[in-house]
Amino acid sequence: MRVEFDRDTCIGMYQCVAEWDGFEKDLNDGKADLVDGEEREEDLFVVEVPDGEELDAKFAARVCPVDAIEVYDDDGEQVV
């Protein structure tokens, strides 16, 4: 499972940070950061979800008020 995070879309509500340790606050920019995320395109970060953290990653995506977080299963299908 992987998470894709569009940092440009993020508005810094930090609800994802409360749901999953895979996100952290960047108070300087007023946005969240995807921990250990690899920048695939400008402001699009991707990370593999560690085993056992799938549910937390899905919750983080679901609570994002601007849908800046997408979750994909191992087959590449979007699940959130």
From TrEMBL:
Alphabetical list of InterPro entries matching this protein: Fe-S_cluster_ET
Keyword Iron appears in the UniProt entry: yes
Swiss-Prot/TrEMBL keywords: Electron transport, Iron, Iron-sulfur, Metal-binding, Transport
Any one GO molecular-function label of the UniProt entry: metal ion binding
Short name of any one Pfam family annotated for the protein: Fer4_15
Protein name (database record): Ferredoxin
